[in-house]
């Protein structure tokens, strides 16, 4: 959209959050969500691209529509770390998306079972006060 380009790392993480929210609005696709998105996007062409291209593209994906890639160089004026924002799952990606998505970790029950196994072997005797 209109956010393309190089950013400082802090600015890149801010823009990533804004873009994620806009794409979530575009996935819903109603007139209400279009008007909500157009409040914060001043360019009409960007809103059309958001609801016409990006919303349908990410319909089957739950979050994680963009990624911030860190660049090795620094900005000339203030030596800030630089980053690039790109959309996941498009042609010509800088870095390909991983197959299978994010693996979710187990809950506290599984962690407790692993802890009991380790504690039983005497590797962490100082942690008995936890359980």
From TrEMBL:
GO terms for molecular function: structural constituent of ribosome. InterPro entries: Ribosomal_bL17, Ribosomal_bL17_sf. Keywords: Ribonucleoprotein, Ribosomal protein. It holds the Pfam family Ribosomal_L17. It comes from the Eukaryota. One of its GO terms (biological process) is translation. GO terms for cellular component: cytosolic large ribosomal subunit. Belongs to the bacterial ribosomal protein bL17 family. This is Ribosomal protein L17. It comes from Triparma retinervis.
């Amino acid at each position: 959209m209109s956010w393309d380009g190089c950013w400082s790392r802090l600015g890149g993480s801010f823009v990533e959050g804004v873009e994620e929210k806009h794409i979530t609005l575009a996935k819903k696709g109603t007139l209400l969500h279009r008007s909500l998105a157009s409040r914060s996007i001043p360019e009409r062409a960007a809103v059309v691209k958001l609801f016409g291209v990006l919303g349908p593209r990410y319909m089957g994906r739950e979050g994680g529509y963009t990624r911030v890639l860190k660049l090795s160089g620094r900005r000339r004026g203030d030596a800030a770390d630089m980053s690039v924002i790109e959309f996941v799952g498009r042609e010509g990606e800088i870095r390909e998306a991983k197959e299978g998505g994010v693996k979710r970790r187990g809950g506290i029950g599984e962690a407790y079972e692993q802890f009991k196994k380790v504690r039983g072997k005497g590797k962490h005797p100082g942690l008995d006060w936890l359980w």
